[in-house]
Amino acid sequence: MPYMILDQRAETEIVKNAERLGFKPVPSDYIKGINESVAGHPDMQLVKIGNDIIVNPESLNHYKKHMPEIKFIAGKTVVQGKYPHYVAYNVALTSDFAIHNFKYTDEAVKERLSGFKLINVKQGYAKCSVLTLPNGIITSDEGIISRCGELDALKIRHGEITLIGNDYGFIGGASGYHDGKLYFSGNIKKHPDYDEIKKFCKNKCIEIICLSNDKLADIGSIIII
Description:
Elements: E1 3-6, H1 12-20, E2 24-27, E3 46-49, E4 52-55, H2 60-66, E5 73-74, E6 92-93, E7 97-100, H3 107-110, E8 117-120, H4 126-129, E9 130-133, E10 136-139, H5 142-147, E11 153-155, E12 175-178, E13 181-184, H6 194-203, E14 207-210, E15 223-224
């Protein structure tokens, strides 16, 4: 049974639907001392690169407890402090490209990116900002779009996604791709750019699945292991 890692503050409907779809939900760690809006976000705590899962060292025991048979690699950066010093694991990955502000990327993560084409961006919240598919991205971040000319990219409008303690969140943090399916934390049909998103995914033969009927919420990505 695959695991679905969700912010521990995710709505009950999301967790129940994950179970219904055959996943074992795993609550994220909660990192005190960083911005509260992202303190429970999985994409601030770990990143999956191929078969390697690199984790914030202080969150390692938390994830080992919930997923004892999974092999984790302790990162070299402790998630702490103020932005941008807690975004070391917030790397956006397609099959061939890695997108991040590599000034802040964890060294253990960098060591495993040798097979990727690196796209350096100003945005430290790369994974939050970018919905990643094997061969394309969706984002509202114009700066990232301008740097990703080699990628098939869909630009959507800013906002329209909730985030605890903020005016709005981001599409990457409200989604997660796995095995031909794209999971959303809310009802993507309520997003004003749904038709464009649906067409983009359909052209890539990707099925869309909503885990809630609420408005999309940035919950720090849906990470499936």
